[in-house]
Amino acid sequence: MTPDAQSARRRGDLAERLIPKAADLACIVHGDGDVKAVERFLAALFPWERDGLLVILAGLMPVDVSEAGLLAWVTWDEMGRPLEPHLAPCGTYAAFRRHKQRGELVDDDCKASARVYWQERNVMRAEAAREGQSRAA
Question: How far apart are CA 73 and CA 132, in angstroms?
Fold first, then answer.
């Protein structure tokens, strides 16, 4: 085995060992965001584990999501106070769903947005079905 293959294998083994630790850390952070619990968790890791964890977590981040989208799960401010929920503006599919869930009248802009959403979704489904049929043939 070449030195490059050995180091690649070691990196792969390390990644497999660190994925459960990354999941544990995510649960702590997404749970109640207890800073002391995060500090204890990180202090229990070896330095090489902390370094590897940074790379693993960076690799798990979606690169096609905006910064606001990445932070959408945060429900408190830096002082621990609850944030006001962000409501999608009218004229979006999310606003259409909100109106429907609350039993509100749906405005024309939200109806139009829902139509576009479902049309695009149906087109994507049809394309996926055609791809599946062509692969099966």
Answer: 34
